[in-house]
């Protein structure tokens, strides 16, 4: 494996909880190059030939294995678009950890746009974790625009954890999903923006098969002068259940726009949207202050819990 | 020892001044459990909030162990050893029972220590320690966790605002036991409980009766309690539902 410097190691830890080379299959991308890769008997990682990116093939029946494909960028001014396709075989049960960390100390913008497509076969189960993290005090922005597409076959199950807590200046996240009969999608998004950051998150989930279901929940905090837009649309084309929820805390001059979108094209579709935006509840602060915390400490505890 | 000197609290309602607490002077000695009772709207909860710093007095003084705390913040009063159990426990998102007990104790407690606090309020700790402090818990459960946070702080002055409000009779009977034990282990501290429950009043050393924001009378339990029995200031278990949940 290619030698990583301390900053790259720290980014790896932030986005993938990695201290060392992960177990199982992995590909570590550092400043647009592969810094290490391993395929296993059941999981094959190969480079795409036409564009930059990877194909990850997971054999049917693969159980309890993981794939790590973190990306770290430390060179200022780097811009890249990466296409990663995941083919998850029938009955497989795997964990996929992606994520991108950018450290930008320079004056030029650094940008990583990852386009991830998931082809999930019958009865397969996937847990997908994606963390974004930015650091560095240069004037150049840290920009991440992830696109995620999920195609779920019969009775498959996908759980996605999307986390972006710190340091990313500009994000436009687009997630699309199409679900067949009995398929299940769960999304848990955690987002915090500060400074003058901007984050846009758009979901479009099509429930096409009988008894398919989607549960898309976003919890977010907008501080300082930051702006967020949460635009979640669920389309029910069959007997299905869909739920989206946007639960947000605004602080300072933070602004949030929540756009609920439900479209029922079948009489047996059952769709629910919930959205709540507000500042931290005064009684929560008071309670923690009666336990001896200062107001600032109380705020920190409330936000840490909220974004857990 | 807590001393209130000519304490007043006035609010502005539709341009008119309304006196909620009117010139109250009293003292709560160490090693005593003091119950505050009286009709709804009499100013009991407000008095507790003034002591904890959640509301600030319009005039008068609050002296705690010789220190004037009248203008102190909630946090500074908490650091001096004043604890407050809310009438309606606050709910959170993502904060667990363990988190709350850890914050309350002010140190990195072990799961075992946290469990001991929960056991002391009659909760089977293992079932609760990792639960979020949210609406999935019942009123009685939240109330006990609220009391456990005050116990975990090891405060020298503990205020309980209507511990019986919003809980069922069965939970209430267990709660009486919790307070009875607290009374037995009161060493070097004092407890103020706001309640109109006869069973709580009957374990207090002293009783203070507030009426229309004024001190109606105060004295030992034996002096005061007989005159309250049968009134709304000292109801029995079977009438609990009728007076519960009074927000003042």
Mean pLDDT value of chain B: 89
Q: What's the count of strands of chain B? A: 10
The largest sheet of chain B has its strands arranged as: 6-7-8-3-9-10
Structural class of chain A: mainly beta
Notes on the protein architecture:
The complex is a heterodimer of chains A (308) and B (248). With 308 residues, chain A is mainly β. Chain A folds into two domains: 1-152, no CATH class; 169-278, no CATH class. In chain A, 10% of the residues lie in helices and 57% in strands. Chain A has helices spanning 6-16, 282-290, 295-306; strands at residues 25-30, 33-38, 43-47, 53-58, 63-68, 71-73, 79-88, 93-103, 110-120, 125-135, 142-144, 147-152, 157-166, 170-179, 184-193, 198-207, 212-222, 227-236, 240-250, 255-264, 269-278. In chain A, the strands form two sheets. In chain A, strands 1, 2, 5, 6, 8, 10, 13, 15, 17, 19 and 21 form an eleven-stranded mixed sheet that branches. In chain A, strands 3, 4, 7, 9, 11, 12, 14, 16, 18 and 20 form a ten-stranded mixed sheet that branches. In chain A, strand 3 and strand 4 form a beta hairpin. The longest helix of chain A has 12 residues, at 295-306. The mean pLDDT of chain A is 92. Chain B has 248 residues and is of the alpha/beta class. Chain B has a single domain, classed as Rossmann fold (3-Layer(aba) Sandwich). Chain B contains ten helices and ten strands. Chain B has helices at 44-52, 74-79, 97-105, 111-120, 125-128, 139-153, 169-184, 198-201, 221-228, 240-243, and strands at 2-13, 16-28, 33-37, 59-64, 67-68, 82-85, 157-161, 190-194, 206-211, 214-220. In chain B, the strands form two sheets. A six-stranded mixed sheet of chain B has the order 6-7-8-3-9-10, with helices on both faces. Chain B has a four-stranded antiparallel sheet with strand order 2-1-4-5, covered by helices on one side. In chain B, strand 4 (59-64) and strand 5 (67-68) form a beta hairpin. In chain B, helix 3 packs parallel to helix 6 and helix 4 (111-120) crosses helix 6 (139-153). The longest helix of chain B has 16 residues, at 169-184. Chain B is globular. The chains are: A mainly beta (308), B alpha/beta (248). The interface between A and B is medium-sized, with 22 and 24 residues.
């Amino acid at each position: 494996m290619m030698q990583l410097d301390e900053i790259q190691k720290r980014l790896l830890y932030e986005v993938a909880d990695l201290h060392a080379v992960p177990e199982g299959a992995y590909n570590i991308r550092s400043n647009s190059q592969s810094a290490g890769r391993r395929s296993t008997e059941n999981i094959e990682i190969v480079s795409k030939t036409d564009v930059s990116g990877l194909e990850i093939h997971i054999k049917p029946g693969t159980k309890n294995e993981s794939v790590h494909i973190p990306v770290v960028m430390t060179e200022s001014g780097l811009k890249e678009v990466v296409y990663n396709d995941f083919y998850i075989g029938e009955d497989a049960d795997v964990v996929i950890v992606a994520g991108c960390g950018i450290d930008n100390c320079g004056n030029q913008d650094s940008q990583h746009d990852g386009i991830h497509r998931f082809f999930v076969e019958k009865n397969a189960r996937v847990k997908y974790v994606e963390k974004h993290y930015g650091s560095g005090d240069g004037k150049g922005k840290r920009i991440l625009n992830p696109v995620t597409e999920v195609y779920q076959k019969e009775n498959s199950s996908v759980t996605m954890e999307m986390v972006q807590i710190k340091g990313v200046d500009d994000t436009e996240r687009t997630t699309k999903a199409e679900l067949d009969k009995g398929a299940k999608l769960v999304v848990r998004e955690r987002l915090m923006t500060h400074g003058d950051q901007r984050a846009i998150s758009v979901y479009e989930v099509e429930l096409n098969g009988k008894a398919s279901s989607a549960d898309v929940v976003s919890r977010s905090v907008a501080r300082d002068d930051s702006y967020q837009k949460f635009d979640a649309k669920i389309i029910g084309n069959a007997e299905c259940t869909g739920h989206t929820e946007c639960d947000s805390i605004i602080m300072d001059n933070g602004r949030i726009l929540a756009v609920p979108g439900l479209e029922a094209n079948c009489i047996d579709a059952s769709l629910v949207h919930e959205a709540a935006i507000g500042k931290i509840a005064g009684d929560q602060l008071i309670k923690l202050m009666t336990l001896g915390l200062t107001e600032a400490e109380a705020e920190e505890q409330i936000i840490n819990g909220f974004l857990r | 020892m807590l001393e209130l000197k000519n304490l007043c609290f006035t609010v502005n309602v539709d341009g008119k001044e309304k006196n909620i607490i009117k010139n109250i002077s009293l003292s709560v000695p160490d090693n005593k459990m003091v119950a505050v009772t009286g009709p709804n709207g009499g100013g009991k909860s407000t008095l507790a909030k003034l002591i904890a710093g959640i509301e600030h007095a319009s005039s008068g003084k609050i002296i705690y162990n010789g220190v004037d705390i009248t203008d102190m913040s909630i946090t500074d009063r908490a650091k001096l050893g004043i604890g407050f159990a809310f009438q309606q426990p606050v709910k959170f998102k993502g904060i667990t029972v363990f988190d709350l007990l850890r914050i309350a104790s002010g140190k990195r407690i072990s799961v075992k220590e946290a469990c001991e606090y929960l056991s002391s309020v009659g909760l089977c700790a293992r079932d609760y320690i990792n639960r979020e402090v949210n609406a999935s818990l019942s009123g009685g459960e939240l109330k006990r966790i609220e009391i456990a946070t005050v116990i975990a702080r090891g405060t020298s002055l503990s205020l309980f605002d209507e511990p019986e409000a919003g809980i069922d009779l069965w939970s209430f009977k267990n709660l009486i036991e919790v307070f009875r034990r607290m009374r037995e282990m009161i060493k070097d501290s004092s407890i103020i409980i706001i309640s109109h429950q006869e069973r709580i009043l009957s374990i207090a050393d002293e009783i203070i009766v507030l009426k229309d924001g004024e001190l109606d009378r105060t004295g030992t339990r034996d002096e005061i309690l007989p005159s309250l029995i049968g009134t709304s200031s000292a109801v029995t278990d079977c009438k609990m539902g009728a007076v519960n949940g009074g927000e003042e």
